[in-house]
Amino acid sequence: MKLLNKDQKEQLAEIVAHLRQVREERSVRLEELAAYTRIRPAILQAMEEGRFEELPEPIYVQGFIRHYGDAIGLDGAALAKSVANICLTPEESNNENQVVDEKPTIYIPLFVPYVLLLGVASLGLFYLLNPQRSVQSSSQKNLSPLAAEQKAKSATVTSSLTSSKPTSPRVTSSKTKPLSPALTNITPTPSRTVTTITPTPSPQEATTPVEVTLELQEKSWVRVKVDGKTEFEGELKKGDKKTWTAKKELMVRSGNAGAVLISTNKKQATPLGSMGSVKQVTFTPETVNNQ
Predict the structure, then answer these.
(1) Cβ partners under 8 Å of residue 47, min gap 6
(2) pTM
(3) 214: part of which helix (H) or strand (E)?
(4) CA-CA distances (angstroms) from residue 220 to 112, 240, 251?
């Protein structure tokens, strides 16, 4: 990058020195800054050491300064603007002002807007006066040649059908032959119906209560619920024997199922489960009567 005079170089050096001072105060290494801004370390080092002749064009230097300032917490855009004011030559600044001031001039004749307005008004008036024709013409334009041909054929067939006179159907009378004796003597066979009979429990079985007797062979924790209500919960000892009766449901839960002999409706007692296991059994009139 070439600078015009010494003043530009000094002003740019002040900006770079300020950036370097802030970077060192915030303990940011040059390698870290290069990795963050994606600027080569050689370019950053040349900037900080004032070797501006090794730098590329001023437009690139502005971008380097902006990324440098943003990375260390400064206003990079303002610093880049200062660099642009320093590096631009008076001739370049005048050329830029001239380019900005020059505006393209396009001459449009005065009658052109009136002609366009008149055409739009005529087109709108035509559609307002002939709405059906415009709709039909647009629909015909949208039809493909094959669809138009098919539509024409269907119209021709329809007109020919409407023009032709309907002919009355001929009624032919024929004498029905009597059925043969073999057919008249056939008697219809009744259809077979299959009925499924579902056995229903007798009123006596449905109303029979559930009677459960527990006899302890060893010590065990037991809980008994009769018709949803807890009747007993606690520990029974060896030799204890208790009986409960329920109308709908009786639940027995034991912490040592092998120590509990259980009998339903005075039947033979059997162990509730294996020794040391926890088991819960629910008895209802249906399950007891089916055992």
Answers:
(1) 16, 55, 61, 64, 68
(2) 0.32
(3) strand 210-216
(4) 110, 10, 16
Contact (Cβ atoms closer than 8 angstroms) between residue 68 and residue 76: yes
Instruction: Give per-residue pLDDT as tens, 48-71.
Output: 888 888 888 888 888 988 998 898
Phi-psi group of 73: left, alpha or beta (phi > 0 → left; psi -120 to 50 → alpha; rest → beta) = left
Range of the domain at 64: 6-100
Q: Which residues contact 171 (CB under 8 A, 6 or more apart)?
A: none
Beta bridge partners of 262: 214, 270
User: CA–CA separation, 204 vs 207, rounded Å?
Assistant: 5
Question: What amino acid occupies position 80?
Answer: A
Q: Which of 53, 70, 100 is the last residue of a domain?
A: 100
At 282, give phi and psi (nearest 5°): -115, 130
Give the domain-ending residue among 66, 100, 134: 100
Helix, strand, coil % over all residues of the chain, rounded to 5: 50, 15, 35
